Amino acid sequence: MTTFWDIIYLLTETPLFFVAIGGLTWGILGGALPGISASITMALVLPFTYTMDPAQAIALLACVYIGAEYGGSIPAILIRTPGTNSSAATVIDGYEMNRQGRAGEALGISLMSGVVGSLFGLAMLILLTEPLSWLALAFTPPSYFGLGILGLSVIASMSGGSLIKGLAAATVGLMIATVGTDPISGVTRFTFDIPDLLGGIEPVLVMVGLFALTELMSQSGSSTVLQLNETIRIKLPSWSMMNKLKRSQTIGCILGLFEGLTPGGGGSIAAFMSYNEAKRWSKTPQLFGKGSEEGVAAPEAANNTVASTALIPLLSFGIPSSNSTAVLLGGLLMHGLIPGPRLFEQSAQVIDSIYVGSFIAIIAQIGVGMIILPACIWLVNRPRAYRAGFIFALILSGIFTLNNSLFDLGIALALGLVGYLMRIAGFPVLPMILGVVLGHMVESSYRRSLVLSGGDHMIFLQDPIAVCLLSIALIFVVFSLSREFRDARKTKIEEAHS
Amino acid sequence: MNKDLISGVVLLAVSGTYYAWSSQIADSTLSDEVGATGLPHVLSIILAILGVLLIARAILLRRARTVTAAGTDDDQDAHLPRAIGFLLLGAVYVFVLPFIGYVAGTALLIGAVALYEGAPRNWVVLAAAVGGAVFYWAIFVKLLGVHQPVGSLFQGMF
């Protein structure tokens, strides 16, 4: 349990305060750049964290996530272009307010609703994560296998409408995870006598390649020119306005909590659901779509809540429920930190740093958000050609930092090409990343279980936790499959009608 | 040929290649019942099945309607050569880095990408490239203490 003195220690004896502010600032800047999602913003900073203290590194990534969720609303309101996917719902009324000359007010509502959502999410994170993680203390190899399968089962809901493609991407991810040294016998697999491959392909390379490089390649040659008005300043909402917004913010917080806990949920779904529900429960639903303050508050509260609550399944069980939490999981694994109760026991400072760092970032968001707005506008207004050059150089420099290896750069570039081809062919990339991240755990726990049972597969049905996790995984898959078939049938009917 | 059909064929090819490679994995006396080749073999079979399913779906959809299957990104498709060109600039960077070192290599990369992305050919590109390279050198080498390549051409100068 974190004590007051732990917090004082973190604030006075470690650079956590500066790490949190730095992460928040980077997150807001990255989130404000259209096309650079929260996960890409996190992936860009991931290699930098390699040389950092693990507690500071993970806190930095969590703060980047918080900042990016707010940053995404800036271009959404100012130029009708969501900086991140989860700020897409903010466009509807945020941009309308901008058109009415109320851009400063919309940015202020977005900022404060984000702070409310983030604080609620952080409270839930602190209250729920540790009790849930204790469950994992009773975990045996079959339980870990069940956990890995549960993690992989979310692929069904992250396949973007094509389960076959999602499964294929995950399988390729698992194949990548087999590169390196076999976890049981120690023989080398798919290393082709290349020493750099003995340790396997690091998940961070896959993430940077599939997220960041693929996005840069996609934007190459784009003629889109964005221009923000440089004179706009944030106008914070008054108490009476905050009072008026409390219903929509509450809706955002509750749905954000629900979606953060649900694998495959994510900020985008939470934001759109909150927008709909806020409209349904509003006293002035007719104003939605015409510059409603509630229409900005609800999605922003929701997506900022998700930025904290999505960490609950991640820290408790190691299940990443979104792209951003997958990057965070990559960060944890990179520093040898395994999510679960042992993380709370053996690396309590990491957990404390996440909590305290997030709190600092959320509170500082108000000041930093106001100060950094001109910088965001300046950055978005830079010519895309120079921006691409700087980001590309940053990515490649960061990757080299990992192992001082040019081979890693080659791997990341190759994965960038793979990611681009996957995008062309309509394959989702997140299942592939899940495969890479969870592959080792699934294989090693499966084989250890069989070693324990002398090859008897019944061991997976004799362990109550494994049975429970595998059953939940089965429910997820069946639920996702039924949804996919329902959607396919609906599309068919719509096509027949048209 | 539609993209799902091509994707299915590629999956089959990847599956076959992976299976062939996995068959070359050495045996170990420490190996368990599943062995080092167990998972790779299963994965290659799963990928092959998914490839066949994708091909079958592509053929059935083709028969069902004449229009191209939805869900693919034609805009991305049209930009493929350009995107590959962008990536090649990175590949050249990786190739020349050991020779010309981090600062010169990064300056070249920023400048080349800026020009490739349509920046006008003037002194601004040069200034941005050199300024950016020095900025990153200060962060990575001086601040973070990362040993970036000095470059064989400049060995002994730093």
Q: How would you describe this structure to a colleague?
A:
The complex is a heterodimer of chains A (498) and B (158). By secondary structure, chain A is mostly helical. Chain A has one domain (4-497). Chain A has 22 helices and two strands. Chain A has helices at 4-13, 16-32, 38-45, 54-71, 73-79, 88-99, 103-134, 141-153, 163-177, 203-219, 239-261, 266-281, 293-309, 311-317, 323-334, 341-346, 348-381, 384-403, 406-425, 430-453, 459-462, 464-497; strands at residues 180-181, 188-189. A two-stranded antiparallel ribbon of chain A has the order 1-2. In chain A, strand 1 and strand 2 form a beta hairpin. In chain A, helix 7 runs antiparallel to helix 17. Chain A is globular, with a radius of gyration of 22 Å. With 158 residues, chain B is an all-alpha fold. Chain B has two domains: 3-72; 76-154, no CATH class. Chain B contains five helices and no strands. The longest helix of chain B has 37 residues, at 80-116. Chain B is flat and about 55 Å long. Mean pLDDT of chain B is 85; it is low at 67-72. At the A-B interface, helix 9, strand 2, helix 10, helix 18 and helix 19 of A face helix 1, helix 2, helix 4 and helix 5 of B. Chain B: It holds the Pfam family TctB. Chain B: Keywords: Membrane, Transmembrane, Transmembrane helix. Chain B: InterPro entries: DUF1468 (IPR009936).
The secondary structure category of chain A is mainly alpha
Mean pLDDT of chain B: 85
Q: What about the largest sheet of chain B?
A: none
Radius of gyration of chain A: 22 Å
How would you classify the helix and strand content of chain B by structural class? mainly alpha
CA radius of gyration of chain B: 24 Å
Transmembrane segments (chain A): 7-26, 106-128, 134-155, 167-185, 197-217, 251-275, 310-333, 354-380, 386-402, 409-439, 459-482
Keywords (chain A): Membrane, Transmembrane, Transmembrane helix
InterPro entries (chain A): DUF112_TM (IPR002823)
Domain DUF112 (chain A): 18-434
